[in-house]
Amino acid sequence: MADENEKNENLVGYVVDESISDEMREAYLTYAMTVIKGRALPDVRDGLKPVHRRIIYSMWEERYLPDRPRVKSAAVVGDVNKKYHPHGDAAIYDTTVRLAQNFTMRYPLIDGQGNFGSVDGDPPAAQRYTEVRLSKISEELVADIEKQTVGYIPSYDEQRQEPVVLPSRIPSLLMNGTDGIAVGMATRIPPHNLGELCDGLTYLIDKPDAKIEDLMRFIKGPDFPTGAAINGIDGIKDYFTTGRGSLDVYGLAEIEPMKGERTRIAIYQIPFQVNKAALVEKIAELVKAGRLEGIADLRDESDRTGMRIVIELKRDINPQNMLKRLYKFTPLYTRYHVNMLALHGMQPRIFSLLDCLKTYIDHRLEVITRRSEYELKEAEARLHIVIGLLKALDIIDEIIALIRSSHDGAEAKKRLMDEYAFTDLQAQAILDTTLRRLTSLEYDKLAQERDQLGVTIERLKQILADDEEKRKLIKEDLKDIKTKYTDARRTTINWEGVVMGEEELIPLKNIVVSITRDNYVKQTPASVFKAQRRGGKGIRGMGMKPNDVVYHLAATTTHHTILFFTNRGKVFGLKAHRVPRYDRNARGIPIINLLSLDPGENVEAMCPVYDFDTKGYVLLATAKGVVKKTLLSEYVYMPSTGKIAITLDEGDDLRWVRVTEGKDDIMLVTKQGKAIHFSETDVRPSGRTSRGVRGIKLSAKTNDKVVGMSLSKEGDALIVHAKGYGKRTKTEDFTLQKRGGSGIICARVTAKTGEVRSLRMAKEEDELLLISAQGQMIRSKVKGIPCIGRATQGVRLMKLDEGDIIAASALMVKEDDIRETDDVTLFDMKPYPPKKRNIDDDEWESDDEEEEDDDDVEEEEEDADEDSDKETDDEEENDDFFEDEDS
């Protein structure tokens, strides 16, 4: 017991009372600084991390030089692990492999033989199978290291010394770049062309006050080992100036012709650090998922001669558009983020291009200074010995006699120093001289060496005394480096910068966007609806939930923006191609997934817009006949929560929206068959949140409502009834009135036809798309619809099932009206013009035989109420209640 107490008393002095949070903080900080300084970050002077430096130095030390045979990688790994880097052979070998990969290093520092991996991500062979030696350019990293040009520190076991930094005649940090992740910080520096770096350094030495703009005349930007292209120089300027920036890097491809008017895309350069096999796999996945349509075949034809990924396209596919989609959806385009973080004096710091170059020049100045001091010391020591030898040769007989009379070498050395005033070094050199050095020829050689040493010493003193002389030596080194190692730039830089909008990456197609009463939305290719003769039954267009009906239909293209206007007077904007694509039998998805609608809020109008920069207007009409005109530019910026488009009166709903030029003629149609035709100039422009003015006076007795609004310049009035009937009427038959009147008869509404459902202004070459409440769709040519008088019921346009009604109508967008997107040729890609593609089918087939319906066409009759309707032209306007009020 006494022994145990005595033991505990002895341990009292070793117990430290410390907060665990403070201890953890200090321990983690120590660990972080160790990783930052000793593992992850390069030194700005030689551009190497500690493991890189140790590998290069160990191989130089063991003389694994370019002019000698390669040795097993395992030997190098063992040397480095044993002497300098005790962190496991895996880390050392992985680094050795990277230093030998020509797709990772712009200028490989190790010359390897064997399997060192591939750009496809294949792993290297084991270290026992591969062989390595230093590459020729690596000798420049260790040049003059034996002349005490750099400092040394003890190795981990203090058994030997290792260099703090290498002399580095080459600007390695920028030449090969680096990647590293430390604790709380990371570095990513791209590689550059060595010839450009030499030119830029030479210019900076001559012009120390040079600006980034001056240096960019020489150093163009990154030069990746895999080539590719950089789009624009803004990112380059950013990291040149601040040390941070982002680069848009694109792979390069050629468009090649094939037989049968087909084309293929051959990718021959990919972005830096992109896995080629993963790129091919990604393309295949997108093709399988249907996101890259039009690809017939995909294969990798890469071999020893170079990279080649071939993508064969189907007939009539635009290769430029396909290439843009490859850039959009695959790693063929990447963003390379630059963070030029490196160590300077063991402190991490962000460097600009100027900082890097100036620090490298300062490093070389120090190396040259230390080398000159070393060489001066060596030259003076040698001169001292040569002078002693020459002095001895002048009295050679006396010297020989002295040596012969001495008992041993120590006595002879002492007598030489005492009797002839030789120094210790001189006396030793005399004693070490062989008899052949006593000839007159040897005397002449020594005299010549003395003179040369004198010149060398003066030259070295001049270098040490004048920094300008040191800079000249740096320039000479750079010139020599450029001559030996420079090569052509691999990475293309597109200085202007190609702006690839989202639409340019989306194939241009005609589509139909539909919305149901229950707010399900989808897009369907217009080509699936083949034109039929009027009166047909159509095809199944949508599978819907019970009691759901199609309410809205918009024929547009994938490059348009659709403005969605709701019954509550709000507007949302969405690119048409972002509406999910479904088969014509599919229901779609709830529109709430695309638009931020409030409970009870429904989309009541869709307005496709191609260009918001045009000087146009948005004309709105409500169910109660209120109209309003607002500049189209008010809708350019569209937040996800939408905007207010109109301030509505109690009980009113926004229903109709059109884009106008400001001077169009407008026609409003009601469900009871009334229409008013007035000039848009009667509606003055107002703010986006204003209330609007009266467009048509509605009958309160019949609870009439507006069901359609169109621009009369767009053709004849095409009126569609709920039960599938319709007709065309010349616009001239509708007298131009003042807005706010009751209008005139535009269609005969009977039990057979049902109430009016829609109004479209159409031309004979147009095509009409109808969809019923039960999901039937029909697409027919307008010229097949008779053009008859105003007060008629029309003809059958679509045969409906019992209880079914027309839910929506739309005019198809003609190909001639589609604004083609200009092709953008990127970098050195060679465009091949494909055969012009027709988006829709050219051959129209009828699914149903035309039905004879003699009762459809009726003689034009004047309605008994027409005279009273015309009297409304002279009625006084009374729309004080509808005056504009800007919020």
Summary keywords:
18 helices; disordered C terminus; Gyrase A, domain 2; five-stranded mixed sheet; Topoisomerase II, domain 5; about 900 residues; Neuraminidase; single chain; alpha+beta; about 25% strand
Descriptive overview:
The protein is an alpha+beta fold. Among the domains are: 48-167, Topoisomerase II, domain 5, CATH 3.90.199; 250-334, 2-Layer Sandwich (Gyrase A, domain 2), CATH 3.30.1360; 503-821 and 857-882, DNA gyrase/topoisomerase IV, subunit A, C-terminal (Neuraminidase, 6 Propeller). The chain has 18 helices and 43 strands. Strands 20, 21, 40, 41 and 43 form a 5-stranded mixed β-sheet that branches. Strand 40 (767-772) and strand 41 form a beta hairpin. Helix 3 (50-61) packs across helix 4 (73-83), helix 13 crosses helix 14 and helix 14 packs across helix 15 (424-432). The longest helix is centred in the middle third of the chain and has 42 residues, at 353-394. The radius of gyration is 43 Å and the shape is elongated. The model is unreliable at 815-887 (pLDDT under 50).
> Number of helical segments?
18
Task: Give the class from helix and strand content and strand pairing.
Answer: alpha+beta
CATH first level of one domain:
Mainly Beta
CATH-defined topology of one domain: Neuraminidase
